[in-house]
Amino acid sequence: MPTSTADRLRQPHDPVADRLEALLGERYGEDGVQHDETGLTPTIETLLSHRSVRTYLPTPVPVEALELAIAAAQSASTSSNLQAWSVIAVEDPARKSRINAVAGNQRQIDQAPLLLIWLADLSRLRRIAGRQGSTADGLDYLESFLLGVIDAALAAQNALVALESLGLGTCYIGALRNDPATVARELGLPDLVFPVFGLTVGFPDPSDKTDIKPRLPQRTVLHREQYRDNPTGEDLDRYNQTLRAFQKIQRMAPVDWSEQAARRIATRESLKNRDKLLEVLRGLGFELK
Ligand SMILES: Cc1cc2nc3c(=O)[nH]c(=O)nc-3n(C[C@H](O)[C@H](O)[C@H](O)COP(=O)(O)O)c2cc1C
Fold first, then answer.
1. Which of 97, 145, 152, 167 has a CA between 20 and 30 Å from the CA of residue 200?
2. Is there a domain that residue 262 lies in?
3. Is the pLDDT of residue 2 over 70?
4. What's the 173 CA to ligand 1 centre distance in angstroms?
């Protein structure tokens, strides 16, 4: 996955400290972020280099890469070792396209050779309880749904990191939740299985370079001992400017992050049909007591 950043960071004469400083600089959109160079392990380099990829080559994802990614996913921590998640690998273009209709027809879904659908899966636990001759009343509670969603998210993120370390690109697709019932029908999901999000996977098209998207200053998210009001107006102004610079490089429409964030949560309509999620979940067999 050659990118300008990766190329620059891998110069053999480039000292480790410079590489880490460059990566942190891109992550926070600031120059001169100081850090102890001993912190730069290959894992941290992969994590700090993350960017979502939305333009793919048609090359299929090697089966070995998929299997390694799923082994990485299964290596994630999981509540009480319940492993309450599953994943469906979708490669059939017609099926991808039908799922894409739910997600608002995003170009990367049609283009990516592989779409992984990450599932909160309580159905397997219910079947196991049945085989044990036991009840499964605990599955009726919000806690169990949350457990499945957390397990699925941790597994997916491990897979994402593994795939990126192998030179593949990915992009989460939360837009499946615009209509999870249709996705469930398309994938033949039994009751008590919820599609949490998709993940497009493929080799990034090098002609469409994606840069690292800066994040909020670390002091905005890191609280010490107790929560404090944040972010300060000054931090927000700086972040808005940083993101504006990123948008310009990426030829994206200029908009302040705070405006974008506020718009995303402003009204019921801004949830794009996901305001009905509770009802949809009950239809999928989750009681959510
Ligand atoms: C749960 C989740 C759902 C997402 N859904 C979408 C999506 O439907 N379409 C899309 O293009 N990007 C989607 N994204 C990607 C985010 O827009 C992206 O992670 C964010 O803008 C930060 O950019 P980066 O991943 O390049 O650092 C999603 C990300 C997450 C974590």
1. 145
2. no
3. no
4. 7
pLDDT digits (tens, 9 = 90+) for 158-193: 999 999 999 999 999 999 999 999 999 999 999 999
Q: Are strands 169-173 and 114-121 parallel, antiparallel or unpaired?
A: unpaired
Split into its structural domains, the chain has a count of 2
Residue 174 CB–ligand 1 contact under 6 Å: yes
pTM beyond 0.85, yes or no: yes
Residue 8 contacts residue 22 (beta carbons within 8 Å): yes
Task: Measure the CA–CA gap between 61 and 64, rounded to whole angstroms.
Answer: 8
User: Where in the sequence is the domain holding 112, given as residue range(s)?
Assistant: 63-208+279-283
Residues 131 and 151 both lie in one domain:
yes
Q: Is 118 helix (H, G, I), strand (E, B) or coil?
A: strand
Distance 24 CA to ligand 1 centre (A): 20
Domain match, 96 and 151 both:
yes
* 8 within some domain: no
- Give residue-wise pLDDT tens across range 78-128: 999 999 999 999 999 999 999 999 999 999 999 999 999 999 999 999 999
